[in-house]
Amino acid sequence: MIDRRTFGTAVGLGTSAAAAVSLTGPQNAAAATRKAGAGSASASADPAAGTHTSFSRVKQVRAGLLNVGYAEAGPAHGPVVICLHGWPYDIHSYVDVAPLLAARGYRVIVPFLRGHGTTHFLSPRTFRNAQQSAVALDIIALMDALKIEKAVLAGFDWGSRTADIIAALWPERVKALVSVSGYLITDVEAQQTPLEPAAEHTWWYQYYFATERGRLAMEDKDHRPDLCRLVWDTVSPTWDFDDATFARTAAAFENPDYPAIVIHNYRWRLGLAEGEHRYDRYEKLLFARPTISVPTVALDAERDPFTAPGEGTSYRDRFTGPYAHRTLAGVGHNLPQEAPTAFARAVVDADRL
Questions:
Q1: How many CB atoms lie within 10 A of CB 181?
Q2: Strand 107-111 with 66-73, pairing
Q3: What confidence tens digit (pLDDT) does each residue in 107-155 have?
Q4: Burial category of 75 from C-beta neighbours within 10 Å (exposed 0-12, middle 13-18, buried 19 and up)
Q5: How does residue 45 score in pLDDT terms, banded at 50, 70 and 90?
Q6: Could you tell me which residues come within 8 angstroms of residue 167 by beta carbon, excluding any fewer than 6 positions away?
Q7: Which of 94, 196, 235, 325 has the largest count of CB atoms under 10 Å?
Q8: Where are the beta strands (DSSP E) in 123-173?
Q9: For the chain, counts of helices (H) and of strands (E)
């Protein structure tokens, strides 16, 4: 999930002509800002949502500390878009986005983050670390392994944070950025300050994971899917997903490293778990809240309880390059799966900024 501090402050789908959806968008930064800079766009009746149920296959590649599982769509030599999922989600958040972008000529890469799905550590001795810079470096390693020099990065939740970090620290690797919830780079020190009670209540799972009880629940194969589904229901109150949709994603939670990665991520954010010294230099830079200069489209989901008020004003100063902001009406936390057309359009528009 996103950072608690942030809370406080016509193309065809594959070969199906019946699922044609327009991705026509603004052609330049000025038009993008004018059309979507401060207003809301309704995406609650997205005709692309639910069109696809799976990717054709998942590939594997050794990258850094991991053997990374990833889905791929589109032409092999097209401009690259890397779509990054969050928690408790997986690559199926982009199952409808990827065909839309592939039909526009993009090569779409959708990796399982560490501890999810078919992404596994190469060594049993590697610390199961989920601090923010470690996850970001996984994606840099993946880009290197696939010989991708530069890509559009698009993400939500953990994926937004990861994309934001890469855009901030390695802007030469990022052509453009789509970041749901805006700027999500974590400041561990700021996380120590309590929020107002209503906001703290929204983060119940984060505090639950700080306890031994929460760790045991995440490790329990019976409790884990129920816990994750409760989060889906809570943070996407208008998304009418079925059992099969959840089950496809829940299979990714069976990775043996999943409990350790999830627990470490949330404990590390609260300053309750140590990271690794190898990442200290990156975290020092990130704790300074570096600005992001690459072209960016920031998306907020109206029905996401973590969406901060103010149409993105709380993080606007962190983006110094070409920029547009959009709030999607009637959409919850899993924005790319709930509103795939709007998300894909944001990718295309960011690439044109």
A1: 29
A2: antiparallel
A3: 999 999 999 999 999 999 999 999 999 999 999 999 999 999 999 999 9
A4: exposed
A5: confident
A6: 153, 174, 177, 292, 293, 294, 296
A7: 94
A8: 151-155
A9: 14, 12
The pair of structure tokens assigned to 202 is: 């929204």
Q: Which residues of 55-70 are buried (b: 16+ CB within 10 A; e: fewer)?
A: beebeeeebbbbebbb
In one-letter notation, the amino acid at residue 56 is: S
From the list 260, 270, 132, the residue with the least C-alpha distance to 200 is: 270
Q: What is the mean pLDDT of residues 209-224?
A: 97
Cis link prior to 237 (omega < 30° from 0)?
Answer: no
Distance CA 177, CA 284 (A): 23
Which residue is it, tokens 């004003």? 313
Handedness of CA 325, 328, 329, 332 (dihedral sign): negative
pLDDT tens-digit readout, 53-108: 999 989 999 999 999 999 999 999 999 999 999 999 999 999 999 999 999 999 99
- Cα–Cα distance, 346 to 335 (Å, whole number): 12
- Average per-residue pLDDT in the chain? 90
Question: For 330, left (φ over 0), alpha (ψ -120 to 50), or beta?
Answer: left
d(CA 322, CA 297): 9
For residue 320 the two structure tokens come to 């110094």
Backbone angles phi, psi at 175, to 5 degrees: -75, -40
Closest alpha carbon to 155 in 343, 330, 4, 345 = 343
Q: What is the pLDDT of residues 257-287, one digit of tens each?
A: 999 999 999 999 999 999 999 999 999 999 9
